[in-house]
Amino acid sequence: MIDLSSRHLLSAALILALAAELTALPQGPPPTPVQTARDTRPTEAIPVGTATVSGTVTVADSGQPARKVRVSLGGSEMRGRTAMTDDSGKFAFIALPAGRYTLTAAKPGHVSVSYGQRRPGPGRPGTPIQLADGQKLQVSLQIPRGGVITGTVLDESGDAIPGTPVRALRYAMQSGARVLQQGGTGSTDDRGVYRIYGLQPGEYIVAATPRNASTAVEIDRMQAEVAAALEMRMTRGAAAESNAAEAEAMASRLAQLRSQLPSGEQPNAGYAPVYYPGTTLPGSAGTVAVGIGEEKQGVDFQLQLVSIARVEGVIVTANGPMPQNVQLTLVSTGHEVPGVGNNSTRADANGRFRFNNVGPGQYMLIARATLGGGRGGGRGEPPTPVASEAARRAAVQARSEQTRLWAMTDVAVDGRDVQNLVLTLQPGMTIGGRIAFEGTTPIPADLSRMRINVSPINPGSGGELASNVNGVVDATGRFSVTGVVPGRYRVMASGAQGWRLSSSIVSGQDTLDFPIEVKPSQNVSGLVITMTDKEAELTGAIVDEKGQPAPDYTIVLYAADREFWTPGSRRIFTQRPGTDGQFTFRNMPPGDYRIAPVLDPEPGTWFDPAFLQQLDSNALRVPIGAGEKKVQNLRIAAQ
What we know:
Layout: E1 3-5, E2 21-22, E3 35-36, E4 51-59, E5 70-75, E6 78-84, E7 90-96, E8 99-106, E9 113-114, E10 129-131, E11 136-143, E12 147-154, E13 165-174, E14 177-187, E15 193-199, E16 202-208, H1 215-236, H2 241-260, E17 268-271, E18 274-275, E19 288-290, E20 295-296, E21 301-302, E22 305-317, E23 327-332, E24 343-346, E25 352-358, E26 361-371, H3 389-400, E27 403-413, E28 418-427, E29 429-438, E30 451-456, E31 469-472, E32 478-484, E33 487-494, E34 500-506, E35 509-510, E36 516-518, E37 524-532, E38 537-543, E39 553-559, E40 572-575, E41 582-586, E42 591-599, H4 609-616, E43 620-624, E44 629-631, E45 634-637
Parallel strand pairs: 1-45, 4-11, 12-20, 12-21, 22-28, 29-37, 38-44, 38-45
Antiparallel strand pairs: 2-11, 3-6, 4-7, 5-6, 5-8, 8-9, 8-10, 12-15, 13-14, 13-16, 16-18, 16-19, 17-22, 22-25, 23-24, 23-26, 26-27, 27-28, 29-32, 30-31, 30-33, 33-36, 34-35, 34-37, 38-41, 39-40, 39-42, 42-43
Helix pairs in contact: 1-2
């Protein structure tokens, strides 16, 4: 064993005793019967054993039994099982085989929890439960109520606007980058009051998005109705006199509405999305910190009138047919809040598009489309289900043959309409290369069963254009992925049984560590993807100074070379040990690593170079060779 002197992020206190003890099942009324998950494979035998996990769930702030909580037990030895707590908050899972399990509890309006979590919250792992044959484990879980943000949204005159949508967006770490995610939604009542509940703990920005009554939109709608009424009059003659009268009334209303439209030089006023405490700039929004079960009141702000405009134009192609599925996104680039302020629409059959109620700012207009190749696999669209391996391969081949088109341009909006934009769709670029194998396992006879995935990195404002692209491999291991739009990507391969991905190198750069940038009109060739049959593995146990398991710690394993301290790095790993203190890391690329135990780190902080630098003073050096199996035990020493 190696002693570690804990300081900074390493706790100096003794580790508390295990959170659960081995006891007999509770007496009294039987718990709610455990229901196994549905399975479409009725002939597969369900593993049966002699171990049991049972316990009680209570509400964190009151200690009262938590009824109708869905408790889920998952593990490698069996499919997941679920149970609902009874009126006493009790649950039980019986006839479990020996193995390693995770236990979670969830209820609407509450914060989901995992067994062994030191603090509830998204991204915080629990402690895996290591069960032995015949073991009867009894546990207690506390499930806290979700947080609440409530306040009032008024218009510029201080009056309530009922039905105004309000969103709470929570900051979270995603692949090492701080991004905003949807946290909860609400709507104002007749007093202008909103209430968003069931929130996870964290930092939020709050946004109200009022609905503008656009004169231009109403004109478009009425023009369509007038045209339909006149067409009916021409085709049905005298039988449609009532429609003709209605059309004339609409025409009169159209003239009145057109007189209200501002001139091309005169900005039109309307409501833009507003962010607490009262700004139309997402980058200037204030944050609202919500603790576990906390209710934040008085998050009040007013809507603001700004100059709004229409952005409209037409989609064309350099050559070939016009696709009928052109999707357009107007991405705000004038702030550093990703995913906020984006609008989407689709072009009509003639390629024309329009965005209404666009506030002042800098934007990027992005267009995407596909031609041919069959359905499925597009952006946001799942592949079409298929019934056989041959059909699946044919479907993947069809999707790989799609022609993916793209266009993008910068747009500045200052309150006046932006008209007559022309976006010319062009085909994506090509990434080509071959697959190599290093190892002793027989190489698959048919390499065409393998698949190539080109995966985008770090969305950002410009990266909104990028999306996953799949490609196929021929029998000799060569591949060509077409339709790759500009962006930064990793290139990966899968589908060779007994082999795993080792590297993906082009021009001396491994895309698995440092993504390649695909630029307009520049194809990428000569990429070599290497597969290996060697799997590195690092195992060990963490114990306290008395030799007892210390499962409360998170084990951080990271590359010693700071060049690899990047968001989403494949050379940075974390894991919570099980109740027995055991941990296992697999699939590490060969190299020099450091390992350190950390007590309850914030999720995602291990991708922060400053965090890793603090660990360096106490971390242990662990060199790992290709395919090496190594054991490294850790002991937490008290000061």
